[in-house]
């Protein structure tokens, strides 16, 4: 029998660099700490955990015996529901034929990076999976620097500098990806930001991908700007992506979508995506698509559910933000989603005295010494040696602060959602209170460092 030489290598150079996603990695670390008997406040995982709307659950159950492959582009009534919902949101007619359904928006983004030409301009910081997806599509990332305070706002000079740097370094920046409201910052673009980005992309013939997975969790109408609204969506090279996971707390069902503009560019890219999908994922789950068709409906019951979700996320996220600010951390007020992105740089002297010089080390210290799980800014592209506004950043997610267990999620979840819209009604969120207390204790430890 022949022998195997491990040193000969079996993986490609790119595959050898693959690492477990940071969000999943910290989730496993929390479980390990819990298994040791250590209590951990979980602010590290961005999975929405509200009870799923009852009609959506019923639709999934009723469709549980559908086992046949659905069309590659998706169930027609789901494509119609997404088109109608987005037509209302974007104030522009979207046709069902422009919509492609996939098992989550993640594979759609990966496929787009794979089929589109050129390297990618990416705001710093950005969601942990964007950069690995880009790199494994054999493309280069050129970071667009963002505002020191909110770590989100993009200026004309910052995006032009990123483009010029890409060209000067031998790259070919032809794609830009944006995400608003943002993971990790919780910030959202203003209309002025969107105008700067769209004008830049038009000027340089750049394809603009707008990941709007959190678009429905916006804390005010002033923070809902998108490059895909109105007739401008069909003007140029734009693609909108979204999904079921965040607003509807159904990440495990894996339903995402992409919407392509009604022009020659859109038709060409959509045709390539469908060919790619036919050889890759074939189709999203049939029962999940049936349920998603109900979820994306513009019915009064779904509109009510969406408004309750936003209200509860807003109350919890802003409560955490206010506590962080009171602790003396550098943090901008979130505008949507369920993330807060504080910097501990006001405590640089104390952190360095503890031997902590990176956000990764800060993240480990917090979970091991203080029982607080949060993701380091470095996994979102932050440079620990870069601008001070980006140093010692941690992403904190509020999505795990509502219910102690799956059973509690459904025992009192609907009542909690119903109460959320009335700001006069206090909400009993024990995990939120515990997280604030744990953060205050952690900051207290830092203040006590000589």
What does this structure look like?
It comes from Trichoderma harzianum CBS 226.95. Keywords: Aminotransferase, Pyridoxal phosphate, Transferase. Pfam families: Aminotran_1_2. Strand 5 (173-179), helix 7 (191-203) and strand 6 form a beta-alpha-beta unit. It is globular, with a radius of gyration of 22 Å. The protein is α/β, with parallel strands linked by helices and 450 residues long. It is built from 15 helices and twelve strands. The strands form three sheets. Strands 2-8-7-6-5-3-4 form a seven-stranded mixed β-sheet, sandwiched between helices. Strands 9-12-11 form a three-stranded antiparallel β-sheet. Strands 1-10 form a two-stranded parallel sheet. It has helices spanning 22-35, 54-62, 76-90, 105-115, 130-135, 156-168, 191-203, 264-279, 286-295, 300-326, 348-353, 359-369, 406-411, 413-420, 430-447; strands at 41-42, 99-102, 119-124, 141-145, 173-179, 207-211, 238-243, 256-259, 339-340, 372-373, 375-376, 394-397. Helix content is 41%, strand content 11%. Helix 3 (76-90) runs parallel beside helix 9 (286-295) and helix 10 (300-326) packs across helix 14 (413-420). The termini are far apart. The chain has two domains: 11-51 and 301-447, Aspartate Aminotransferase, domain 1, CATH 3.90.1150; 56-297, Type I PLP-dependent aspartate aminotransferase-like (Major domain) (Aspartate Aminotransferase, domain 2, 3-Layer(aba) Sandwich).
């Amino acid at each position: 029998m022949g022998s195997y030489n491990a040193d000969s290598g079996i993986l490609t150079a790119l595959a050898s660099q693959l690492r477990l996603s940071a969000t999943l990695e910290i989730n496993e670390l929390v479980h390990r700490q819990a298994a040791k008997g250590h209590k951990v406040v979980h602010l590290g995982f961005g999975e929405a955990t509200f009870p799923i709307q009852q009609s959506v659950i019923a639709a999934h159950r009723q469709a549980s015996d559908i086992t046949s492959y659905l069309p590659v582009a998706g169930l027609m009534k789901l494509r119609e529901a997404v088109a109608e919902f987005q037509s209302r949101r974007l104030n522009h007619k979207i046709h069902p034929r422009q919509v492609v359904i996939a098992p989550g928006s993640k594979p759609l983004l990966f496929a787009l990076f794979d089929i589109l030409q050129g390297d990618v301009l990416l705001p710093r910081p950005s969601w942990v999976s964007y950069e690995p997806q880009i790199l494994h599509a054999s493309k280069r990332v050129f970071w667009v620097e963002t505002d020191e305070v909110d770590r989100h706002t993009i200026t004309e000079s910052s995006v032009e500098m990123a483009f010029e740097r890409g060209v000067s370094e031998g790259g070919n920046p032809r794609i830009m990806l944006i995400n608003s409201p943002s993971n990790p910052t919780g910030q959202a673009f203003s209309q002025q930001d969107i105008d700067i980005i769209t004008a830049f992309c038009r000027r340089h013939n750049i394809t603009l991908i707008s990941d709007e997975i959190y678009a429905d969790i916006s804390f005010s109408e002033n923070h809902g700007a998108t490059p895909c609204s109105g007739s401008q969506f069909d003007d140029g090279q734009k693609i909108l992506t979204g999904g079921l996971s965040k607003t509807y707390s159904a990440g495990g069902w894996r339903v995402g979508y992409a919407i392509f503009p009604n022009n020659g560019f859109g038709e060409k890219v959509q045709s390539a995506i469908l060919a790619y999908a036919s050889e890759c994922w074939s189709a999203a789950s049939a029962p999940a698509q049936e349920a998603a068709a109900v979820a994306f409906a513009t019915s009064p019951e779904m509109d009510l559910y969406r408004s309750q979700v936003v209200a509860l996320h807003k109350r919890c996220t802003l409560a955490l933000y206010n506590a962080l600010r009171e602790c003396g951390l550098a943090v901008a007020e979130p505008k949507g989603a369920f993330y807060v992105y504080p910097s501990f740089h006001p405590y640089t002297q104390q952190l360095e005295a503890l031997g902590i010089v990176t956000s990764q080390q800060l993240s480990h210290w917090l979970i091991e010494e203080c029982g607080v799980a949060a993701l380091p800014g470095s996994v979102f592209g932050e440079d620990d040696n870069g601008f001070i506004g980006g140093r010692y950043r941690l992403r904190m997610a509020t999505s795990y602060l509502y219910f102690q267990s799956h059973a509690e999620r459904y025992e009192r979840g609907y009542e909690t959602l119903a109460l959320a819209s009335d700001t006069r009604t206090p909400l009993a969120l024990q995990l939120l209170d515990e997280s604030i207390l744990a953060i205050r204790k952690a900051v207290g430890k830092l203040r006590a460092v000589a």
